[in-house]
């Protein structure tokens, strides 16, 4: 069988994931500014991603840290 997709141009953007990640980081920062006590679970629901994705993004953000205990802490 010949490959019918061989001569078809691939118009898939290579930097889409980077743009989405940057938008997610901006959303996280905006939500933390509005409510410093927002939870990771709430951020995940707002962004429509998993809690693990929020944790990964927060780990990459060097200027965002959680201060205090889980119950009464803030960002």
Topology (SSEs and partners):
Elements: H1 16-34, H2 40-47, H3 51-60
Please give the alpha-carbon distance between the first and last residues.
58 Å
Question: What's the total number of strands?
Answer: 0
Low-confidence stretches: none
Provide the gyration radius in Å: 18 Å
Describe the main β-sheet briefly: none
Q: What structural class is derived from the secondary structure elements?
A: mainly alpha
- What shape does the CA trace take? elongated
**Average pLDDT figure:** 83
Number of helices: 3
Order of helices and strands: HHH
Describe this structure in words.
This protein has 75 residues and is mainly alpha-helical. The protein has helices spanning 16-34, 40-47, 51-60. It contains 3 helices and no strands. Helix 2 packs across helix 3. The termini are far apart.
Brief rundown of the structure:
By secondary structure, this protein is mainly α. It has helices at 16-34, 40-47, 51-60.
Key descriptive features of the protein:
75 residues, 49% helix
């Amino acid at each position: 069988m010949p490959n019918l997709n061989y001569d078809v141009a691939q118009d898939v953007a290579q930097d889409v994931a980077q743009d989405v990640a940057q938008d997610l980081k901006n959303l996280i920062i905006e939500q933390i500014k509005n409510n410093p006590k927002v939870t990771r679970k709430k951020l995940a629901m707002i962004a429509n991603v998993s809690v693990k994705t929020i944790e990964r993004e927060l780990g990459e953000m060097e200027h965002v840290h959680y201060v205090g205990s889980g119950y009464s802490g803030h960002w």
